[in-house]
Structure formats: C-alpha cells, structure tokens
C-alpha cells in the first residue's frame, strides 16, 4: 500500500488474497544487522491479518490506489473483479458485486494516477477496459482488440496521465493516448514490435514521462524513450550506421539480457537509472549506464 508501505497484499494459486503487516521485517532491515533480532518472528510464524477467498480462483491482477489509502482492486482468472476499502479498524471490506465486462481472465489492473475513482484493467479477451466506480459495475470505456492476443500488462503514466502502455502475448508494446481513444477499436499512439515472445511486465519511469521499461519471455528487458526520433541528417554526418541498426527502433535505448523467464521489472524510485528484474533464475539489480 503506497500510503502504508508495511501493508502488503499477495495472491497465489490457492485463490486467497492475503494481507500482511511486514513492519517487523522492514525494521530488521533498517537495523542493518545479519543477526536475528530477539523479537523477530520466524518466517513460518508470520500470518496474514486479513484473508479473502471469495474470488474462488487463482488470480494475477491487483493494485493499490495511489490516491486513497486502503483502496484496492483485484481481478481473477474466473473474470471476477472486486473493489476493496479499508475500514477504520484497519481491516478491509470487499464489495461482493463484481465489475462486469471481461469475457476471459483478468491479467492486470492499474488505478488512475489522478482520478480517485477510475481504474483500468486488461484481459486475455484482448481488451483494455476503463472503469469509474461512481457509475456502476459496467466499464466506462473499452478498447476492444487492443492486441492481437492476450493483453498481459498495463502501466499508467504517473506524469502524463493521458498515456497508458500495454504489453501483449504477441510481444507487442502499445502506447495509448487517452485523449483520443474512442469506445471500441482505436489505434495506439505508438507501437513497438521488437519482442518476439509475450511481454510479462511494463512500467513507466517514475520521473521521466517519455521513458518505460518492459520485460519479455524472450529473456530480455528493454528500455524505451518515446521522445527519440531517427535523424537521417545526423546519421549522414556520422558517416556510417552500425550493421543492423537500421532494423532497430530508434526509441530502443538499452537491452538487459542474461536472465531466464523474466517476470517483472521495476524502476528504482530514488536512483533514476537503476532497475530491478525478477526471473526464474534469480533477481538482478542493474544500471542502464549513459543513457541520460
């Protein structure tokens, strides 16, 4: 939870959403000691203080609201999409009435960075939907056939809030300008087809509105800057272009490789060129050097 970083929500194939208070673990890290604290709990002794199982299905999609403390949405493989609020006693209430519209598994969710009651969802039904919780359980706007295959991930730009990026099973990245999209089928503002396998994670840079990172099942992390354009005059002045460079999008700045089956990538919030990626064979923290 952004407003309370010690409150963490998890989900797995058990179909239960668990909420933990990880303050003891954070305190142990702050002490900077490898020796266990006398009051520390063993990992097996840490229990969630709230468990929710009404989804009755495995799920992947969850997101805390960046604007309202204790507000969350969760979406499951059985198409149930539910809204959460935190009560005064610290526990949670879940609205049992699901948001209706998706016809297949819900893959990812993102709250609007500027609108308290608005969030977006993407699905294996190839659509991206936008919801306003004030006007009922039907989506306010739908981008049908947003990708050729499942839409796996989305990220809402925290600086330029009219921009949303999505990643699909076909490997494509699409940037949507919400000022111009219409209900139904719309064209993206930008499309990048570099990856040849499903996109597994995507995230805008926290302070640079034109930059984003994406990971893929092709075992790579790509960094992109939408503000970059190819300059033929500059290339002519240099006198040569590296072999194969003409086949690469000019917006592609950096590739990180060497991991297997990368699942997530995230920017560091304080160190602007540092990223973390998680994969089947471990966790990498790396710096994309000399790109800004």
Describe this structure in words.
The protein is globular. Strand 13 and strand 14 form a beta hairpin. 5% of the residues lie in helices and 39% in strands. With 292 residues, the chain is mostly beta strands. The protein is built from two helices and 22 strands. The chain starts with 6 loop residues before the first strand and ends in a 5-residue tail after the last strand.
Summary of the model, kept short:
This protein is mainly beta.
Helix/strand order: EEHEEEEEEEEEEEEEEEEHEEEE
* Mean pLDDT level: 89
Strand order of the largest sheet: 4-5-6-7
Q: How far is the first residue's CA from the last residue's CA? A: 30 Å
Structural class: mainly beta
Give a quick account of the main beta sheet: strands, pairing sense, barrel closure. 4 strands, antiparallel
Task: Give the proportion of residues in helices.
Answer: under 10%
Low-confidence segments, given as residue ranges, are none
Number of helices: 2
Annotation, overall tally of beta strands: 22
> What fraction of the residues are assigned to beta strands by DSSP?
35-45%
Give the CA-based shape: globular
| Whole-angstrom Rg | 20 Å
